[in-house]
Amino acid sequence: MAEIHAVELLVQALKRLPGVGVKSAQRMAFHMLQHDRSGALQLAQALEHACHEVKHCALCHTFTEQTICGTCQDKRRDRSQLCVVETPADQAALERTGAYKGLYFVLMGKLSPLDGIGPNEIGLRKLFERVDALVDGEREVKEVILATNFTAEGETTAHVIAQGLKARAVAVTRLARGVPVGSELEYVDLGTIAHALVDRR
Fold first, then answer.
1. How many Å apart are CA 173 and CA 120, to the nearest integer?
2. Is pTM beyond 0.85 here?
3. Rounded Cα distance, 60 and 86, in Å
4. Per residue in 164-189, is it b (16+ CB within 10 Å) or e — as a string?
């Protein structure tokens, strides 16, 4: 019975991954146990290491093992531009285009009142504090690029942020509609994302 219990625990754990149902979780569990136990141990160790070592960047809120992530530390980045995205996956998608050289703020979510996710849960106060930060007596951020996804929640999030920035002396732009409505940046082709960045308004 102990073995059956252990397998069921593994299946339940794998089901927590996005898009993974019972059958897919069972397939993965049985494959690792039957064919790749060393890979399963490597996965377990990597997950444990990441859970203990990975934290949020003090400036942009993305995942990093350092206090300040490598992107925020990079002196070659345009510090006058701040691109607001929902997740680290969206940030990675924008980075892969090579079209953006500014800095980021990662919300780690989007506004969704039905799910109990409000401004405090996605760190809007921290975003506004970042925009308001002064360097040598001047506001460092001159433009905020709203790159939330073109879903209902993403649009609502962009609107709330834009309203919050209205009273501040900062330009607010939105990704152009080259990105299909209802899409998520992580799954959009790189050319479309690059054009959307160039044609932002």
1. 23
2. no
3. 11
4. bbeeeebebbbbeebbeeeebbeebe
Compute the distance between CA of residue 172 and CA of residue 145 in angstroms, rounded to an integer: 6
Q: Are 78 and 89 in contact (CB under 8 A)?
A: no
For residues 10-36, one letter each, b for 16 or more C-beta atoms within 10 angstroms of the residue's C-beta and e for the rest, the string is bbeebeeeeeeeeeebbebbeebeeee
Question: What is the predicted pLDDT for the residue at 156?
Answer: 92
Burial class (CB in 10 A: 0-12, 13-18, 19+), 62: buried
Look up residue 146 and give its two tokens.
Answer: 């709203």
Looking up tokens 């460092």 gives 140
Is residue 181's pLDDT more than 80?
A: no
- d(Cα 12, Cα 10) in Å, to the nearest integer? 5
The Cα 110–Cα 89 span in angstroms is 14
H-helix or E-strand spanning residue 82: strand 78-85
Q: Is residue 8 a contact partner of residue 33, using CB atoms and an 8 Å limit?
A: no
Question: Which amino acid, 89?
Answer: A
Packed helices 190-198 and 88-97: angle between N→C axes, nearest 10 degrees: 80
pLDDT tens figures, 97-140: 999 999 999 999 998 888 888 888 888 999 999 999 988 888 99
- For the chain, the C-alpha Rg in angstroms (whole number) is 20
